[in-house]
Specification:
Distance between the termini: 57 Å
Order of helices and strands: HEHEEHEHEHEHHHEEEEEHHEEEEEEEE
Strand content: 15-25%
Largest sheet: 6 strands, mixed
Number of strands: 19
CATH class of the largest domain: Alpha Beta
CATH topology of the largest domain: Creatine Amidinohydrolase
Radius of gyration: 23 Å
CATH architecture of the largest domain: Alpha-Beta Complex
Strand order of the largest sheet: 4-3-2-1-5-6
Structural class: alpha+beta
Number of helices: 10
CATH superfamily of the largest domain: Creatinase/methionine aminopeptidase superfamily
Number of domains: 2
Amino acid sequence: MHKKALLRKQLNTQKVDAILITDLINVRYLTGFTGSSGYAVITKKHAVFVTDFRYEEQSVHEVRGFSIKIEHTKRSREIRNICDVYGIKTLGFEEHDLTYGFYRKLVKRKIKLRPLANSVESLRMIKSPKELACIRASIRRAETAFKKLAPYIKAGTTERKLALKLEELLKKQGCKTLPFEVIVASGPMSALPHAAPTDRKIKKGDLIVIDWGGEYDGYCSDMTRTVLMKGANVSKQREIYYNVYEAQKRALEAVRSGIRSADIDAAARNYIDKAGFADFFGHGTGHGVGLAVHEKPVVSWRNKDQVKENMVFTIEPGIYLPGFGGVRIEDMVIVRKNRAEILTSLPKKLKCIGT
């Protein structure tokens, strides 16, 4: 069923006459518009995309399935006019996106408002064939860039230099934007799950966590590999790595249509707990990826919802020992009926670098 048709089915259940879409990622998902200013209003019979004069020509080329309107007055007044034209008595809005200040402006226009949660996000969780093709292309770009990074990973270089080089390589592969800032964290810094690259020089015996992603036509990819610099005594580093490796393997094997997100998380978490590292894996096992690098579904102990076919998400357990170092291994998967289709293809056997 078409995206608009699925969204319109929610109008009756949500008891609204129309839905105002202001989240620009959701606007892009529904309309195709890639600019920085615009919104959409969907009623039972009409679909309107509104932007300002800067994007008039761009919207003609990008927007499909919506009538296009160019604002000539204040936004709140324009929305009031749309409500009058289409007989909208109760307007649903995205509760996560509309600011309180703008909410107050709409209220002053005497628009009856109703907050809605996850109206579009629930649709975005199930990926279409076209979306899956874009995600695959995004992954190919990211993996090709990482392979070209290998010669630069050596003792003496800094985390920041490695991160900048990987960003450059991603751009050279065609990524117009990066889904997030590249993470390169070495030695003790690798114990910080989302460490920012520093001027720390990489040393022998360091674990190096590299977390990066690609982009294709707005769709993101997200992956992590951990490598080890050869050193005199790296048995602890190897122990951590292979516990994460086995935990991830179990979570990947658990993925199938109908299983709860919490049970996928438990497959990885239980293994890490039994290995004695329960206190050192605090984040969820994964998250959805699409037009945003972090979107629904969330794969964690908190989410009891079932996953469904054609959902795309990461599987990324980790162990982080403060003051020592950490390991994370992250792959992206598509949910199939009885299995996970693993999209990422980079090797996961521990790579030891150096002489």
